[in-house]
Amino acid sequence: MISQKARYALRALLLLAARGDSNPVQISEIAEQEKIPRKFLEAILLELKKTGIVRSHRGRQGGYSLGKPAKDISFADVLRVTDGPLALSPCVSVIAYRKCDDCFEESICAIRKALLAARDATAQILESRNLAQAAAQLRRSGAL
Amino acid sequence: MISQKARYALRALLLLAARGDSNPVQISEIAEQEKIPRKFLEAILLELKKTGIVRSHRGRQGGYSLGKPAKDISFADVLRVTDGPLALSPCVSVIAYRKCDDCFEESICAIRKALLAARDATAQILESRNLAQAAAQLRRSGAL
DNA sequence: CCAAATCTCTATCAAGTCAATAGGAATTAG
DNA sequence: CTAATTCCTATTGACTTGATAGAGATTTGG
Fold it and tell me: Which residues span the domain enclosing B36?
């Protein structure tokens, strides 16, 4: 299951993507619109900023905007920031590979083979879904 | 990421599948072979038993054996017992569906659409991988 | 029969994670 | 300068995870 943090992040980003324009949106506005606890959202956006997914502007008239085109921000990108690797085991993670603590021979591990296939399938989907698509779909549904 | 419990469960089951015969194997033997904390393994096997994945025999000469043919026990079956639903959100879970707390309209939720596709991809893989395959693969690798 | 071996059950624990909150420091527009 | 805003660090309570302890129930070999 994804964390609450991930949900909030996706909702906030979807809002930014939906706006389209590059005017920064303030934390409090996002928090209110999306019913996200304000302080928690602050922390989330800060993390998203460190990875370049969003950009911030401080001071009066400050706020957040997407750090790159919405089509270049995938669901996988976001989930990796909020929830860590997509992989079901460190030994099949691309971004955070680590040998399992008590693995005796990785190359023949039957568990690993299944988890690797699962990771590839998940990553294939989540890397192909991006914020631009999602926002467009919302527009089509009349939600915006 | 899967839990430690899931790893232990898979390893224990793989051992049972590898044995092939239906003679029960004792907890302490599994624990020793697979280097799993004995008391923890006890609890895990008990859970697996409740769902029919393993069968137990008490008293002297007791122990555990698979509750059904190895080919009928998928990785998905095991992970669902130890770690809960495969889905990334309750709203896309087949075995534990629940509406998201603050979802305003599920049918048009863009996040849900992506998570649903991810769930289907993961489930497709993990339901197709079973203990018999995994044990056979270990045999081919010369690990048994 | 009975005693040893085994699974079954309930309770407990420490450490870690998650979701949320608090308060002030730094920055910028006007 | 001052008000509005993001940035940063710390803290909290509830829950989960991984592991352990000990007594209860059941079966079987001798």
Answer: 1-73+131-144
pLDDT digits (tens, 9 = 90+) for B29-84: 999 999 999 999 999 999 999 999 999 999 998 999 999 999 999 999 999 999 99
pLDDT digits over A3-56, tens only? 999 999 999 999 999 998 778 999 999 999 999 999 999 999 999 999 999 999
Number of domains in chain B: 2
SS3 of A118, please? helix
A62 domain residue, yes or no: yes
Write out which nucleotides of chain C lie closer than 7 A to a protein Cβ: 4-11, 18-23, 26-30
Kindly determine whether the C-beta of residue B35 is less than 7 Å away from any atom of nucleic acid strand D: no
Domain match, B46 and B109 both: no
pTM of the model: 0.94
- The number of angstroms, rounded, from the C-alpha of A139 to the middle of its chain's C-alpha atoms is 20
**Strand D lies under 7 A from the Cβ of residue B113:** no
Q: Which residues contact B137 (CB under 8 A, 6 or more apart)?
A: A108, A110, A113
Question: Tell me, in Å, how far CA of B143 is from C1' of C4?
Answer: 35
What pLDDT does residue A11 have?
97
